Structure formats: structure tokens, C-alpha cells
Amino acid sequence: MRDIKFLEVRCANIARCCCEWIGCIGTLEEHVAKCEYTLVECINKCTFEQKIISVMRKDLEHHIKSECPNRAYKCKYCTEEGTYASIMEDHGNLCLKKPVPCPNTDCTLTLERGRVVEHVASECEHTVVACKYHSIGCPERKKRKDIVIHEEDDKIHLHLSLNKVSQLDETVAQLNHTVSQLNGAVEQLQVVVKELTGKTEKEVSVSIDVPNLELEEKPVMCSSLNLSSHFHNSISRVIQVMIDKPEDSV
């Protein structure tokens, strides 16, 4: 009776991809461990549909070097390192060295992502910008390449300048009028303060002359209350004058 280990068998991978190995059953296990057509898991544990990807042993090296999303990879535009997937997806959308097109539709320039903001703000001739005379009322907005021609139109901007100067003159006149009113109000306050100061000194003197007369203290206290009321009313009148006068002058 023949020993079973000497029975002749074929590689189980013949059905998968043409492995033509034929040998004794005793050496089958050794062959399968080396067979180029045996499925092996990716050493980087990359997955597809939540399962670790398996490839034929003969294709494993190519998979690791060129296909595996978990293979080590360095950004070709900068020094960032990571997995192929992270560099191409996450980092690829942020890399400041990666060339990207200018966001302005008519601009055909491609430049590093880190320079895009500066390019659009101060260089790109297709960026829409305001006229440099916008501070004096020019509402014009054109592409940078076209706004220069508009800004050379002296007639339009001279007219705007004259209007602006006229407006400033009116503003200055109004401010001078307001200052004059405030000066007048200050003078009135000074008069009121002087009057109140004189009355206060007089009442204090009366209080000192009759310190022991209980009946005389009450009129003094009442007079002090009247003085406080008088002071409040006087201040209120002056403030009202300051409020009313600008309205009367309009």
C-alpha cells in the first residue's frame, strides 16, 4: 500500500490562476507557502469594504509600492509625509505649495496655493476693484486691467473733488456754529455758578452769626433746599438752551 504522502496532487491555486505545480501531497503545504498565486493580506492592512485586501503573492510588491492607500508617501510639492491616502486627500486640499488655478474666471494663471490670496488682492488683472477715488464718492468698480483707464478721466474726478470740498466746507461751518453755541452756554454756566456761589457764602455767614438760635436754623435749612432747587433749575435751563439752539438754527 502506497504511503499517502507520496500521492501526486496539483496546487489548489490552479483554479485561480494557472499554477501548474504538481507534486507529492507531503510537499503541498511547503509549496502553498511559497506559491506566487496564493492570496496574502496586504502588510499595511489596507481595507476595502471594511475587509483587509488580499492579493496574489506575486502582486504584493507592486501593490505595496503603487496601489496600497496606506503606503508611505511624501507630498511631491512640499516636505509633508504620511500615507498615500492622507497626502492625496486631506493634505492635498491644504498644501500651500500645490499649484492651483487662480479663482478669477478669466485668469489662466496657475500658482502655488499659498500665493493665491496675495495674487488676487494685488496682482491679478481680472480682480474687480474699486476706483482709487472712491473716498470722494466715485462708485466705479471694474477689473484691475480696466480701472486704470477710468481713473485717468480727470474731468469726472475733478467734479467729485469739488463736491467733496463743498461738503467739507459746510461741515466745518456747522462745527464752528456748534462751537460758538457751546462757548455761549459755558459763559451762561459761569454766570450761574458765580450767582450761586455768592448766595451760598451769604447763607453760610448767617448760619455762623446765629449758631445758638434754634428758630433761625430752620429758615437757613429751607433756604439751602431752595438754593439746591434753584441750582438744578438753572442747570436744566442752560442745557435746554444748548439743545434748542441748534434746532432753531437749522
What's the SSE blueprint?
Elements: E1 8-10, H1 14-17, E2 22-24, H2 28-34, E3 39-41, E4 47-48, E5 51-52, E6 54-56, H3 60-67, E7 72-74, E8 81-83, H4 84-90, E9 99-101, E10 110-112, H5 116-122, E11 128-130, E12 141-143, H6 144-151, H7 154-209, H8 214-249
Antiparallel strand pairs: 1-2, 3-6, 4-5, 7-8, 9-10, 11-12
Give an overview of the whole structure.
The protein is α+β, with helices and mostly antiparallel strands and 250 residues long. The chain contains eight helices and twelve strands. The termini are far apart. The protein has helices spanning 14-17, 28-34, 60-67, 84-90, 116-122, 144-151, 154-209, 214-249; strands at residues 8-10, 22-24, 39-41, 47-48, 51-52, 54-56, 72-74, 81-83, 99-101, 110-112, 128-130, 141-143. Helix 7 (154-209) runs antiparallel to helix 8. The chain is 53% helix and 14% strand.
In short:
This protein is of the alpha+beta class.
- Number of DSSP helical runs: 8
Q: What characterizes the major β-sheet?
A: 2 strands, antiparallel
Shape: elongated
For the largest sheet, list the strands in their spatial order: 1-2
Q: N- to C-terminal separation?
A: 129 Å
Alpha-beta content class = alpha+beta
